[in-house]
Amino acid sequence: MDGNGRWAQRRSLPRTAGHRAAEATVIEIIETARSAGVEWLTLYAFSTENWNRPGTEVDYLMGLVRRVVRKHAPLLLARGIRCRFLGVTDPRIPRELAQDFDDLTTLTDGNRGMTLTVAFDHGGRRDIVEAARSLIRSGKRADEVTEHLFAQHLPFPDTPDVDLVIRTSGEQRISNFMLWKVAYAEWTFPDVLWPDFRAPDFLACLHTYRRRDRRFGTVPPRTNGDPR
């Protein structure tokens, strides 16, 4: 979810105003994804590298996220959405916010609709390192390690591989996001700042994805008259 700061700067507002404006987009995209039949939605909210931002901005984000979680918990429960948080390990996360994350996870655990994962204090490299450490602690021999076994040691191993990554604001980089899971993801880079991103933009990305020819490294079978 990229572009909050630039959205604010273009309006001569503090960066925090962009983060505040992003709340409406978050809720609209959750609702739109659910209505479109998306079963797994992940929102990349805060990376391990985001701790390097100015302390005042980080503090504001922590307070904003807590308010958003508490405000919209009843809606998420009513919509049958199961909520999970990917990351959330840094001791700098306020204790009250970490508790709100746990409470929302518990509250919605029985839901069987869309699974919403919020990547907060998330880093793809860290996840891979922690999975390797977990494998070592399990005592597996090197020749026993397979891709499937390794994936079982990643956070939330039931999460399927990512099909589509939407990075708003036109930036084109991975930014340490779910590095294992995005191996064969399709990518779209809409040139829209996150606070301006709305349902039609999201649905346009889904339409683009559905038109992609996903071969996963293989060659499609030939048909009669196919010159390949």
UniProtKB/TrEMBL annotation:
Positions bound to Mg(2+): 2, 186
Listed InterPro entries: UPP_synth-like (IPR001441), UPP_synth-like_CS (IPR018520), UPP_synth-like_sf (IPR036424)
Binding-site residues for substrate, renumbered to this chain: 3-7, 15, 19, 47-49, 51, 53, 167, 173-175
UniProt entry keywords in alphabetical sequence: Magnesium, Metal-binding, Transferase
Keyword Transport: no
EC id: 2.5.1.-
Cofactor: Mg(2+)
Pfam families in alphabetical order: Prenyltransf (PF01255)
Source species, domain of life: Bacteria
Active site: 2, 50
Free-text cofactor note: Binds 2 magnesium ions per subunit.
Enzyme class: transferase
GO molecular function: transferase activity
Keyword Cell cycle: no
Entries under Gene3D superfamilies matching the protein: Decaprenyl diphosphate synthase-like
Function comment: Catalyzes the condensation of isopentenyl diphosphate (IPP) with allylic pyrophosphates generating different type of terpenoids.
HAMAP family xrefs: ISPT (MF_01139)
Oligomer and partners: Homodimer.
Family statement: Belongs to the UPP synthase family.
Protein name: Isoprenyl transferase
Organism ancestry: Bacteria, Bacillati, Actinomycetota, Actinomycetes, Kitasatosporales
